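Q: I'm building a small set of examples for a reading group on sequence design. Run inverse folding on the following structure and report the sequence directly after it, with nothing in between.
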């Protein structure tokens, strides 16, 4: 008698592949009579059905990908949204300063490049940078006089 169906049932019941199921020849008659999943479980406990071990370096349990805190990254869409909002905020602020003539055109262009390259973390960071520019500019003017 073909025991393919029994092997398939045993594989499904015991959550292993068909190739790992082995029937003991001396107890084939009991295996032929097994119909339900519970019958298969009982035969496995009694030793009529044997499950082969996994060959090689594989493990029985799935090894989940472990992520340490350094490897966790935000989703691309999230990072892009943050970049867009920050860039828009900084550009509007800088253009406002240029209209009020608080920074020169040269400084404006330089700051725009730095905004694009993510040089500034926040608007406060940008304000600090502009404050440093103004102090450097004041020092240069004093040296000229």
């Amino acid at each position: 008698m073909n025991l393919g169906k029994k092997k398939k049932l045993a594989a499904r019941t015991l959550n292993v592949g068909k190739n790992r199921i082995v029937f003991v020849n001396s107890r084939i008659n009991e295996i032929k009579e097994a119909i339900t999943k519970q019958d298969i479980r009982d035969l496995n406990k009694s030793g009529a059905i044997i499950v082969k071990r996994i060959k090689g370096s594989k493990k029985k349990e799935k090894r989940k990908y472990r992520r340490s805190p350094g490897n966790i990254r935000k989703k691309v869409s999230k990072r892009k949204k943050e970049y867009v909002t920050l860039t828009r905020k900084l550009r509007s602020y800088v253009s406002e300063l240029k209209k009020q003539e608080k920074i020169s055109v040269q400084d404006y262009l330089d700051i725009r490049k730095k905004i694009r390259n993510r040089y500034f973390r926040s608007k406060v960071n940008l304000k600090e940078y502009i404050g440093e520019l103004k102090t450097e500019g004041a020092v240069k003017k004093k040296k000229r006089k």
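Residues 76-99 form the longest helix (24 residues).
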